[in-house]
Amino acid sequence: MRDMIAYCGLDCETCDAYLATINDDQALREKTAKLWAELNQAPILPEHIHCEGCRVDGIKTIYCDSLCAIRQCAVKKEVSTCGDCQDFEKCQTLGEIISGNPDALKNLKG
């Protein structure tokens, strides 16, 4: 599995936080921070939008590093992705991601 596939199956290379980081795009950081703050009801600011990928060494957004329940669970279980977890098909938290993004499920199944 590619390193840029997140624990949840999303493709980091298409993530606005990743794109804002690699392209040093301040406008995209601001847009992403506003959207993520609303979606997660959390104080996410543009300066928090710096990420080099969920499963690779390097900086993570505050959301991905500290708030993402999926990432925290996968790290705790020491799985490469949720696709390696025996409970992944019945996980409600993961279900929220894959129900809105069928490519994530496809990525997890390899």
Describe the structure.
This protein is globular. The longest helix has 15 residues, at 26-40. The chain has one domain. It has helices spanning 16-23, 26-40, 62-67, 69-77, 92-100, 102-109. It is built from 6 helices and no strands. Helix 1 (16-23) runs antiparallel to helix 2. The chain is mainly α.
Q: Give the topology string: H per helix, E per strand.
A: HHHHHH
Give the helix proportion (percent range): 40-55%
Average pLDDT: 91
Number of DSSP-assigned strands? 0
Proportion of residues in β-strands: under 5%
Summed up, the domain count is: 1
Count of alpha/pi helices: 6
Structural class: mainly alpha
Biggest β-sheet strands, sense, barrel: none
Spatial shape? globular
End-to-end separation in angstroms reads 7 Å
Short précis:
By secondary structure, this protein is an all-alpha fold. It is built from 6 helices and no strands.
